[in-house]
């Protein structure tokens, strides 16, 4: 359970969250009720515990541990860790807490209590309903992420104001199905379980499953959609206008979070978006866009701000989707402008300087028009940098 505080060596540290959220509010002591954890988990857990307590002590927190492990083992552990370890018999009780507070010289009003679910207070996962608490929860689930990822919208259904918000984490080992990611979307909309599941299952295909940072999949991914019905709108039980409104909001949330994951890929300096337009079918568009966004050569070119259109056509060509390369138009677009790179498969007389300027932005889009129909698809990824290699070469060290 101690690993809850250190899911990764580059994670946001628990002491930083504690400082931001509780020290400034007047809390001065933290009691960890950690039955059978540190004493059982050996030297590595002890080292991590010492590191945490040293940081908390630097800030000004006093700390104490409660344990019902064998007293002689707790006494031995007490000498190693540099904080107060209070032995207690059986279940947590008032006596143990009072003794811990006495040793820390704190009161109930200035003491945080962290139980077996270690996220509860230090991580801010026990929400008080405030926006700040939601932001803390988004920070709590970060691993190699460099920024918390969250978004919220309000909309109207049946004359009632409805709110929907989401947060996620994901930075490396990200590839469709559904990536190494956690996503949590909540809403106060009143909607049946069946329609809620249908909306999410359908939307995932065009959002999270269109993200790739490094082409590596994982078994560890979850997206949860929760609705409590407190908006009191007419319940959505079937497809119709209200359902479409709900789906539009859900798509905005999921698309925003998917792009945040891609843009915060490990080592990334730019979000790379690939749009396939005028495709023969949705399946063709999806295949082509995914092939381009996962191309290591293309991703490296984006990092170098190099308008290497040959790499994009090459990735489209080996995708397995059938198209005529001699009919393809290709554009690059960003906040700095839009430029046509090839027309009907042939390079235009474009300015390399202008192309480099467009590709130097934090978000870059490649648009390929295959002129075969009216289907489209969009995939999201990022550039491939030296830092990606550094992060993953040192991952366990």
Please provide a written account of the structure.
The protein is of the alpha/beta class and 397 residues long. Helix content is 35%, strand content 22%. The N terminus is likely disordered.
What labels would you give this structure?
14 strands, six-stranded mixed beta sheet, 12 helices, four-stranded parallel beta sheet, 397 residues
How large is the count of helical segments?
12
Percent strand:
15-25%
Low-confidence stretches: 1-14, 35-41, 116-126
- Class from secondary-structure proportions: alpha/beta
Q: How large is the radius of gyration? A: 26 Å
* Average of pLDDT: 82
Query: How many strands appear in the DSSP assignment?
Result: 14
Shape descriptor: globular
Short description:
By secondary structure, the chain is an alpha/beta fold.
